[in-house]
Amino acid sequence: MRRDIFQAIADPTRRAILALLAIHAMTPNALxxxxxxxxxxxxxxxxxxxxxxxxxxxxxxxxxxxxxxANKMKEVDQWLDTFRKIWEDRFDQLDDVLKDL
Length: 101
Description:
- It is a single chain.
- The chain is mainly alpha-helical.
- The longest helix has 27 residues, at 74-100.
- The chain has helices spanning 5-9, 12-23, 28-32, 39-51, 74-100, and strands at residues 55-60, 63-68.
- The protein has a two-stranded antiparallel ribbon.
- The chain has one domain (5-99): Arc Repressor Mutant, subunit A.
């Protein structure tokens, strides 16, 4: 099943995993230590992130390391860009109103 990046960031645990991986690559066990859930639950989140192509994996000996795929996050940035322009326009309008007061 093909998933998109928005499914990856829909869950707070997956967002937290992405934030951890933004700092450095980690193994599933190292990731699981940061959460109050089972390693299997964290592995399921990692699987979803991999299906969304938000993370990539490399193998170093017996260990699998997961890395953030920052390029995939550009899709979120592009989607948010439309809203960013709306927010900036509204803040500019608010500035004008405040200056008039």
